[in-house]
Amino acid sequence: MLSASVDIRVRYKETDKMGVVYHANYFTWFEVARVALLDELGCPYIELEKDGYFLPVLSCGGNFRLPAFFDDRLQVTVKIEKPPLVRIEALYEVKRKDELIATGVTKHAFVSSGGSVVRPPEKFVDLVQSTFSD
Hints:
The protein has about 130 residues and is of the alpha+beta class. The chain has helices spanning about 25-40, 45-50, 120-134; strands spanning about 1-10, 55, 55-65, 75-80, 85-95, 100-110, 110. About 25% of the residues lie in helices and about 35% in strands. The strands form two sheets. A five-stranded antiparallel sheet has the order 1-4-5-6-3. A two-stranded antiparallel ribbon has the order 2-7.
C-alpha cells in the first residue's frame, strides 16, 4: 500500500457564511496529499509532467461526517491500496486529532499530453512494485 499524510491548517477563506469549511476545499486538500504521496514515492508529479504524463481526475467523491472550522488543524491521509496499472484509485481520510471528519475517493488515469490513455512510466511502475512487494 502507498500512503502519505499532510497537515492542513484551515484558512478563513476556506469557510462559508456559516463558518464551516466549504466542501470543495476538501478536494484541494486531497490533491495536496496526492502530490505529497508522489513526492514520497520518488516520482514527483512535476517530473511526470515534464516527461509527458498527466493524471487527470476521472471521478471524485466525498463524505462529510463532521464540520471543520477556521483554524482547525487537520491531517489529510491518502492511500492507494491496489497497485496502479493504468488507473489509480486514491482513498482519503481527513481527521481533526483522532476524529474522522471526512473521507473521499478520486480515480485517475495516466494520459499523454495529447490526452490518450497510456501506461505509466517505467520509473513509476518500478517504484510502485517495490513498495507493494515490501
